[in-house]
Specification:
single chain; alpha+beta; Rossmann fold; 4 domains; 8-stranded mixed sheet
Length: 676
């Protein structure tokens, strides 16, 4: 369900909710919506965790405590309407460690809109940032409990097929949804939903919390932590951090920047317009000592200039005009050619920070060759080789290719899965990548340790306002102190003392699980290594962070049966009554995949929508395999899937009429023969 469809379902639900009579005592009724405001689809999206009743039969909508006996509503809601439930309690706990926050939300909602003797599904929706991850969900409904679990592909194949496919996932990158199924059968005296009265306090105020790390100058340190007895990896964990400090007059490197913008046909419309706006803003952030150039590409190259241009008012104004005139969507995608062109443009850069900014929404077949070629260029140029920062637009590009490309060259990676966020995220991405204050950072830890594994493998530059954090595993003995070395903007060397501390309060493995999984997945894709893939799976299973190789499912547990199983096990029974007997629902949309080359070749509009459910792909695949001996069956299936509903009805009626005529002719022939 896309966000527009979700907003429409909520709007339908609010209309249905008007049927509910709250009684004279408004104390227990949900607050009335704010009047005098024009309702837009965006305003119907939740700004806080919310639970909705999923209503496909409008006749079941009523106050469970005070029936209104309103006239019956005929028909069905397709798609189902979503009625916001009455919140009774909400609590939030946030644990902040380094650059990561773990947020735990506990809430209680009352199903105030469904008849007491009826039931429905409920949908939990949690708004979150694009960089956030869902670690787990636990739900208690009556005597049933639901919890999420991460499992690998092998375990998924060994278990029975999930009972349902509409378990949830991301409605859009900022909205995580999970459907809590209704009870299909119940015992006498046990209701699915609890209707409790509680004192409620409603508020329309937003809660903001922020904190800053104060320091006059840049500083750093190293945190060490021993593994737990349950940790499969018994190597110690380390975390190296560098903070840039608050000095505003810290000199930034002189920049030589090449912007590479994808203008293939799939970028047409809002995505390309937002990219152009962000590009124009980035040009205004350059200073008079910098140089720049712009390359727009599809199958061909379109360069603003044949050489690097100084940043002057005239040149920047010419660049704005060139962007409006030349940056127009059309054609295919070829990434290797513009990257090689940008490397050549920056081959003579001296005493500066050469940087390439690549923005694309497509996936190409030679992505591994591109990474290998850029790695060769980086090795030849040495420490001052161009940094390649990558930005992915939508879901059709291979984000792990872009992550790997930026990691190889010490650049920055970012992405926008929502067209409305492209401009703002690109601006932050450009500021983070283009304002280094310390480059070529090295820490001599390899001579002191027997074994070390570092994420990322190439230490990035330290930029203004952005802490630098590197983590990993090691074997050996860490010294009491270390030194980090780097180069400042005036090409002088800086040495930073790093104090080594042991910590137990910060769960380092949990903090860096997502980063390690993403980097391992990118390296596993690039090297096609099964060993790295298995390592990513182990971290994902241990940390409950979904990955490209693991799945999240929603498990239903009957608390009464669970207590009975415990009693049976207590008396020595070996019978397994584990999760095989539980209702399992697959949660979709947690993996971004490795790009879609076919969508790029066909220039399909940039993918921001909901991915296809596996059940659809499963049926389609079975149909193709079933009919692959007949000519063009796959294309017939594709064509039929795109037919208009009314056309299908007309075709069905025509086929029925032809069948009737065929039967009539057959009967006439039979009658005539018998009469003869």
């Amino acid at each position: 369900m896309a966000d527009d469809e979700f907003a429409k379902a909520v709007e339908d639900g609010l209309k249905l909710a008007k049927r509910i009579y709250a009684g004279k005592d408004r104390h227990f009724a949900p607050p009335r919506p704010v009047g005098g405001m024009e309702r837009s689809p965006v305003s119907l999206l939740p700004a806080a965790p919310m639970v909705y009743a999923v209503v496909d039969d409008p006749g079941i909508v009523d106050n469970p405590d005070i029936p209104s006996y309103q006239p019956h509503v005929y028909g069905r809601c397709d798609p189902p309407a979503l009625i916001p439930l009455q919140m009774n309690e909400i609590a939030l706990e946030a644990d902040c460690f380094l650059d990561t926050a773990f947020v735990a939300i506990r809430g209680r909602w009352r199903v105030h809109c469904i008849m007491r003797n009826r039931s429905c599904d409920c949908r939990l929706v949690v708004p979150m940032g694009e960089q956030g991850s869902i670690l787990g969900v636990e739900v208690e409904v009556g005597r049933k409990s639901y919890s999420t679990r991460v499992m690998d592909e092998e375990e998924n194949q060994n278990m029975e097929k999930p009972a349902r496919n509409e378990g949830g996932g991301f409605l859009k990158p900022q909205l995580f949804s999970l459907t809590i199924p209704e009870e299909r059968s119940r015992q006498a005296g046990i209701l699915t939903f609890l209707y409790e009265a509680a004192v409620e306090q409603w508020s329309h105020r937003e809660f903001y919390f922020s904190y800053s790390v104060y320091s006059n100058d840049l500083f750093g340190g190293i945190l060490l932590q021993s593994p737990t007895m349950y940790d499969l990896d018994q190597r110690d964990t380390f975390c190296l951090y560098l903070f840039p400090g608050n000095i505003q007059n810290r000199k930034v490197f002189r920049r030589e920047v090449v912007f590479i913008v994808d203008i293939s046909g799939s970028m047409e419309g809002k995505p390309l317009e937002n990219v152009k706006n962000a590009l124009s803003t980035a040009l205004l952030e350059l200073t008079a000592v910098d140089k720049f150039n712009i390359i727009a590409f599809n199958e061909e190259l379109h360069s603003f200039s044949s050489c690097m241009e100084p940043v002057t008012e005239v040149k920047v104004e010419n660049a704005h005009e060139w962007i409006c005139k030349t940056v127009v969507a059309g054609g295919g995608t070829n990434i290797m050619h513009p990257l090689n062109e940008a490397i050549d443009l920056l081959s003579y850069a001296q005493d500066s920070a050469p940087h390439i900014f690549l923005i694309t929404d497509g996936s190409v077949e030679d992505e591994r060759d591109i990474c290998s070629t850029m790695r060769t260029h980086v090795a030849k140029r040495g420490s001052m080789s161009p940094r390649i920062s990558t930005f992915g637009v939508g879901s059709y590009c291979n984000h792990y290719f872009l992550r790997m490309l930026s990691s190889i060259s010490k650049g920055q990676y970012d992405a926008a899965y929502d067209p409305d966020l492209i401009e703002s995220r690109m601006q932050r991405w450009f500021m983070r990548a283009s304002s280094p204050i310390v480059m070529n950072i090295t820490v001599d830890i390899f001579k002191h340790l027997d074994e070390v594994e570092v994420y990322p493998s190439h230490i990035p530059d330290l930029s203004v306002g952005c802490p630098l954090i590197v983590s990993g595993r090691y074997q050996g003995k860490f010294p009491d102190s270390l030194k980090a070395k780097g180069i400042l903007a005036d090409m002088s060397e800086i040495v930073i003392d790093l104090e080594v501390k042991n910590t137990k309060d910060i769960p380092l493995e949990k903090v860096f699980a997502k980063q390690h999984i993403d980097l391992l997945t990118a390296e596993a894709w690039f090297s096609e290594s099964k060993q790295l893939k298995e390592k990513a799976i182990k971290i994902s299973m241990r940390s409950s962070v979904p990955s490209e190789y693991t799945y999240m499912i929603l498990l239903q547990t009957d608390t009464e049966k669970q207590d009975a199983v415990k009693q049976v096990k207590k008396h020595g029974s070996q019978k397994d009554a584990g999760p095989k007997n539980c209702l399992r629902i697959r949660v979709h949309g947690l993996a971004i995949g490795f790009g879609n080359v076919n969508a790029t070749l066909e220039n399909l509009p940039t993918g921001f929508g909901e991915p296809k459910l596996p059940e659809t792909n499963y049926v389609y695949e079975k149909a193709v395999r079933c009919c692959d001996n007949y000519c063009c069956c796959m294309y017939i299936i594709k064509a039929c899937s795109k037919l208009n509903d009314r056309l299908v009805i007309v075709m069905t009626q025509c086929c029925a009429a032809l069948s009737f005529l065929g039967c009539y002719e057959c009967c006439c022939a039979a009658c005539c023969e018998s009469s003869n």
